[in-house]
Give the backbone structure.
Amino acid sequence: MTASHAIGGNNPPAFEAHSLNIEDLFALVSGTTAKGAVETDQQEADLDGLLDEFRKARKAADAERAAEKKPHDDAAKAIQARWKPLLDRCDMAAEEIKRLLTPYRTAKQRAKDEAARIAREEAEAKQRAAQDALRQSDDLEARFAAEAQLKQASKLTAVANKIDRSATGLRTYQVAVVEDYAALLKHIKQTNAETLKAWLDDYARRALPSKLPGVTIQTEKRAA
């Protein structure tokens, strides 16, 4: 091994042993890459040897990580498996109850909305009539009656507002329904082109080796 610390030397804990080994390798890479671009076969061989050492070090460290983590994963899976059926039954029952309640509560909501509408329209009519009476009459009795009608209108408005605020057990959800994909795509191109470009780049990469319209497949060499 290129690093100065062999795994398991003097039987240190696994994490510390792998840490020492990888840190030593990292120091070697830092010193080697500080020389700049690769210009000789010897530099290539040195770096290739370090690359191999890092692959081995990573594989060994990852295997130790997996071994250390496995008992916890197994315990977590066992707990999840034991509780999941109970939670699933609760979720299933809750969804069925909500399915049964929704039509009834929707009907109650419509009735409530209608009652509020009627009360509000009656309040507006009384308010207009009372205001007209106040403007058109100087008679004290008529003005008194109009004032009383204004109070009634105010009470009806309060009733309508109270109906609106009353709970019905329904929750409002927003649901996006795309009706014109071309229009949406045009909007995204105009307002969020970079995000769209990144998504298309990723889509093209995932489609390889398939050839997509507008995509050119190129080849390039990289260090293995």
About this structure: The helical segments are 14-33, 41-136, 140-165, 181-191, 193-207. DSSP finds five helices and no strands in the chain. The chain has three domains: 14-81, 84-165, 174-215. Residues 174-215 form one domain.
